[in-house]
């Protein structure tokens, strides 16, 4: 499997997963053994990752970056939604019950 190999600038922990964001904009989702999950890592941002937030299901992850992007990633499928803002985004918070949205 791969190695992070770049400075970690953000991290979030869940019972199922450890998610790391790097200075280069890559987001890594790792299992309890430290192995990348399928579809990982993802180069989601063009700058340092400033924040990572995980919902209670452990399946949805939000990340924010200096490049003005916020991404929402579904770990089970690898699907990603990307939102672009005109300035650096320093923090993010996903609804804890995001997976339950109907």
Structural class: mainly beta
Question: Strand percentage, roughly?
Answer: 35-45%
Number of strands: 8
Mean pLDDT, all residues: 92
Global outline? globular
The gyration radius over C-alpha positions equals: 12 Å
How much helicity do the residues have?
Answer: under 10%
Quaternary structure annotation: single chain
Provide structural commentary.
The chain is mainly beta. 0% of the residues lie in helices and 40% in strands. It is globular. The mean pLDDT is 92.
Summarize the structure.
The protein has strands at about 10-15, 20, 25-30, 40-45, 50-55, 60-65, 70-75, 80-85. The protein is mostly beta strands. The strands form 2 sheets. It has a 4-stranded antiparallel sheet with strand order 1-2-3-4, with no helix packed on it.
Q: How does the SSE layout of this entry go?
A:
Layout: E1 8-13, E2 18-22, E3 26-30, E4 42-43, E5 49-54, E6 60-65, E7 69-74, E8 80-84
Antiparallel strand pairs: 1-2, 2-3, 3-4, 5-6, 6-7, 7-8
Question: Could you name the key traits of this structure?
Answer:
four-stranded antiparallel beta sheet, mainly beta, globular, 102 residues
């Amino acid at each position: 499997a791969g190695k992070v190999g770049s400075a970690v600038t953000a991290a979030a922990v869940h019972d199922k997963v450890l998610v790391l964001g790097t200075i280069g904009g890559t987001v890594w989702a790792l299992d309890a053994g430290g192995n990348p999950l399928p579809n990982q890592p993802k180069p989601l941002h063009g700058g340092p990752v400033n924040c990572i937030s995980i919902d209670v299901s452990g399946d949805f992850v939000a990340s924010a970056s200096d490049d003005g992007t916020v991404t929402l990633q579904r770990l089970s499928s690898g699907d990603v939604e990307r939102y672009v803002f005109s300035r650096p985004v320093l923090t993010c918070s996903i609804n804890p019950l995001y997976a339950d949205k109907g």
